[in-house]
Amino acid sequence: MKSTTFQLPPELLRTTIRLDVEAELIPFFLCVTIGTTSTTIIDLIRSLSEVTKDYGILIHVDAAYAGSACIGPEYRHFIDGIENVNSFSINAYKWFFTTLDCCCLWVKDPDALTKSLSTRVELLTNNASDLKQVVDYKDWQITLNKRFRSMKLWLVLRSNVVCNIRNFLRSHVKMAKIFHLVESNNMFEVVVPRNFAMICFKIFPTTLEKELNGCNIGSGNIEAKLIDQEYANDFNRICLRR
Ligand SMILES: Cc1ncc(COP(=O)(O)O)c(C=O)c1O
């Protein structure tokens, strides 16, 4: 296991912002991740938001995949400092049992959105909007229209009690923990820490080399060669036959 956690280091962020400011640039937005989908890396929201606060930078948390897990109390610590951010999003279609597509976006200050995105034209006016009896989501986005996705999320919430959803997610994490045993096979290396239900692993280059020599399909810089799709496919076919 590599020692690095692949997180964005708060001190590096501070130094980079300082350099930007010295260069008369205006840093204004930071997007951090909770369980980014390719590796499930978790940024430290509290420490990063302390840096952005010093410079008045907006901070968004992209929790597309792993935000769902935070429905379980045992995962809440991953969003420590969440009260300091401006917005947070999860893709319910990823790990919240809702069909494609359905993204939930929470914003701390909806006025900031509506001030820049609202459209007030005569043909769109109506009493309910004028009297503020309804929320006009057209004012929260660039487009005026969006498909009605909230019903399917509502059905997921209504048809599964919260403990069932938590238990589903926990069962996926449990399977990943078992699959983590792949590391005990000396052919493979787990390349990033497992945080949720995904394991990123790769075959060791030395193992590859041995396999390839045995298969007689080539030698040289194996890792570089595997970037070639055809070569990688040939190699995978041979491995699968073994
Ligand atoms: C980390 C991450 N952020 C954002 C997105 C995009 O989400 P959306 O489908 O809502 O555009 C994805 C989609 O795969 C993702 O994995």
What would you say this structure looks like, in words?
- With 242 residues, the protein is α/β, with parallel strands linked by helices.
- The chain folds into 2 domains: 10-161, 3-Layer(aba) Sandwich (Aspartate Aminotransferase, domain 2), CATH 3.40.640; 166-241, no CATH class.
- It contains 10 helices and 6 strands; from the N terminus they run H-E-H-E-E-H-E-H-H-H-H-E-E-H-H-H.
- The strands form 2 sheets. It has a 4-stranded mixed beta sheet.
- Helix 1 runs parallel beside helix 2.
- The relative contact order is 0.10.
- It binds pyridoxal-5'-phosphate.
- Pyridoxal-5'-phosphate binds at residues 36-37, 62, 64-65, 91, 101, 103.
- This is Tyrosine decarboxylase.
- One of its GO terms (molecular function) is pyridoxal phosphate binding.
- Keywords: Decarboxylase, Lyase, Pyridoxal phosphate.
